[in-house]
Amino acid sequence: MGMSVTISVATEQDAEQIFRLQYLCFQSEAALYGNYRIAPLVQTLDSVRQELVSDCVFVARLGDEVVGSVRGSITEDGAAAIGKLCVHPRLQGHGIGARLLRAAESALAEERGAKRFRLIAGHRSEGNLRLYRRVGYEAVGTSQGTDGVPMIVLEKAAGTYAATA
Ligand SMILES: CC(C)(COP(=O)(O)OP(=O)(O)OC[C@H]1O[C@@H](n2cnc3c(N)ncnc32)[C@H](O)[C@@H]1OP(=O)(O)O)[C@@H](O)C(=O)NCCC(=O)NCCS
C-alpha cells in the first residue's frame, strides 16, 4: 500500500481533527438519507472534546493527520455503545475501519469490562452493515434517531470474532 496507518488512543489535542474528519466522512451518509441533520454532522466541537475525556476514543493516523476515528462508552445496561466510526474517503477500503473497531472493542472489554458491544447503522447503509456482520455483529432490533433516520441495532458478545475478521 506504501503507507503506514497507525491506530492509537486519541488525545485532547485531536479534538478539532476528529471533528472535521467526522464532518467530512458523514457527508456520504447524509446524502444517502437526504438528511444533513444526522447526529455526526450536528455534533459540536465541545461535545467531541467532552467525549475525548469520558469515552474510549481511538484515531487512525497517517503521519500527523487523523484519517480515522471511533468511540465507545459503557451504557447503563453494561453493554458498550460504539459509534461514529469513520475513515477519510481517500483511505476507505483498506481495512482501517475494521482495525479501529477492533481497537475500540479490545479497550472497552479490557479496560471498562464490556461484555457486549452495540452499534447502530442506517438501514440502507449496506457497506456499513456488511462490515459489522463480517466482524461478528448481528441485528437485534431497530431504533429511530432524533433525525428520523431508521437505524438497525447490532450487537455481539465480547470475545466473538468472525473467522475472516
Ligand atoms: C464505514 C467506514 C468507517 C468503513 O471504513 P473502511 O476503512 O473503509 O472499512 P474497511 O476497509 O475495514 O472495510 C470496507 C471494505 O473494504 C474491504 N477491505 C478491507 N481491507 C481491504 C484490503 N486490504 N484490500 C481491499 N479491500 C479491503 C472490506 O472487505 C470492505 O469491503 P465491503 O465494503 O465489500 O464489505 C467508512 O466507509 C466511512 O467512514 N463511512 C462514512 C461514515 C459512516 O458511515 N460510518 C459508519 C456509521 S454506522
From TrEMBL:
List the GO molecular function terms: acyltransferase activity, transferring groups other than amino-acyl groups
* UniProt-listed Gene3D superfamilies: 3.40.630.30
Q: Where is the N-acetyltransferase domain?
A: 5-159
The alphabetized UniProt keywords are: Acyltransferase, Transferase
Q: Which Pfam families match?
A: Acetyltransf_1 (PF00583)
Q: What is the protein name stated in its UniProt record?
A: N-acetyltransferase
Q: Which organism is it from?
A: Streptomyces aurantiogriseus
From which lineage does this chain's organism come?
Answer: Bacteria, Bacillati, Actinomycetota, Actinomycetes, Kitasatosporales
